[in-house]
Design goal:
The chain is an alpha+beta fold. Helix content is 53%, strand content 15%. A hairpin with a 4-residue loop joins strand 1 and strand 2.
């Protein structure tokens, strides 16, 4: 799996060029509502979306999956979406960003989820105009099912508010999808800490590195979203957002800050776990080296002793030539000397707490 999966056009391609999606599957879901009415089309053709746009209604078009270039061009004509935005929608893997002009706002965010115990991020694009919100989400998982459930209730805030509140709800839903992922990472960290304290094995290093990589990749995707939400709530030139909606965006910004701080904290914990493992490995190596050193030191005097008596100079040639060779107890005396020296050194090492 790629570290940073990104789709892009060939170098030199004309800006706004839309490449056809191979084996792409997508679905369109439309909701148009007022405080007193609701029209919903779970499966709708792109060309039919324009007929539901009215000044008195809030229209939400959600595209789930990988739409082809023809669908994007149809939606572009209906909702006046710039061709560069279409290219960003089609070429996934972009960094979170916000584009604002007098009548439109275009937002790109990342939605993290787990797939085969690895974190993958889906790209979510939101196009906001006065009465219309068009959203695009890659992958098969539709993250806005609960939002639709709330819109279906006549007493919900969505039915009483404008399209800016709907856009806030979608952004907040995307941001909050990171909390379960971060919580799962926290559980993985706890499991690794328990393993590290009980039995620090070499395999744990791979798990720690994998966890740190996941945290870094997730941080890269989610950190810019904090700036995007901050810009949305502070940009006075963005007239599409009402002042009371900006209050909700401040709460969403707090969620972004909380998530990024958790990621930073967990990354520091993972780095500390790696340091603990390396310290344990160094400690174990020092223990082994100390034992080997003690053993080596214990055998140095006996080695010297047997080396001296291994010269075998004839005592008959001179009284100075190893008279112990002729002693009937010479061999026993050497063993007593060896055991005594080694025992004495062991007692000395124990007193010094070297062993």
């Amino acid at each position: 799996m790629k570290l940073f999966p990104t789709a892009y056009s060939e170098p030199g391609t004309k800006p706004g060029t839309l490449a056809d999606v191979k084996n792409g599957h997508y679905s369109l879901h439309m909701m148009s509502y007022t405080p007193a009415s609701l029209t919903e089309r779970p499966e709708i053709e792109p060309a039919a979306c324009y007929s539901f746009i009215k000044d008195s209604d809030i229209t939400w078009i959600h595209v789930q999956g990988a739409p082809d270039s023809a669908t994007l061009r149809t939606l572009s004509q209906a909702f006046d979406i710039h061709e560069l935005y279409l290219e960003d929608i089609l070429n996934t893997g972009h960094r979170a960003k916000l584009e604002v002009n007098e009548v439109h706002a275009f937002v790109i965010l990342s939605l993290p989820r787990f797939e085969n115990k690895q974190i993958v991020t889906e790209q979510v694009c939101l196009f906001l105009s006065d009465h219309t919100v068009v959203s695009f989400c890659t992958g098969e998982l539709d993250p806005f099912l609960l939002v639709r459930e709330r819109i279906r209730k006549p007493t919900s805030k969505h039915r009483q508010r404008g399209g800016d509140y709907l856009a806030y709800t979608l952004i907040d839903t995307i941001v909050d999808h990171a909390f379960p992922v971060v919580e799962t990472l926290a559980e993985d960290i706890q499991v690794l800490e328990d393993k590290l304290l009980e039995k620090p094995e070499k395999a744990i290093v791979q798990e720690i590195y994998f966890l740190m990589r996941q945290l870094l990749l997730l941080r890269r995707r989610l950190w810019p979203q904090r700036d995007i939400v901050s810009q949305l709530q502070r940009d006075d030139n963005l007239e599409l957002l009402a002042d009371d909606t900006r209050i909700y965006l401040r709460d969403c910004y707090d969620h972004c800050v909380n998530i990024t701080e958790l990621l930073e904290t967990y990354h520091e914990i993972a780095s500390g776990m790696l340091d603990i493992y390396l310290s344990n490995a160094t400690h174990r190596l020092n223990e082994v080296m100390r034992v080997l050193t003690v053993i080596s030191v214990l055998f140095i005097p006996p080695t010297f002793l047997v080396g001296v008596y291994g010269m075998n100079f004839d005592p008959g040639a001179s009284s100075l030539n190893m008279p112990e060779l002729a002693s009937p107890y010479g061999y026993l005396f050497v063993w007593i000397a060896i055991v005594g020296m080694m025992g004495g050194m062991l007692i000395y090492f124990r007193k010094k707490r070297w062993f």
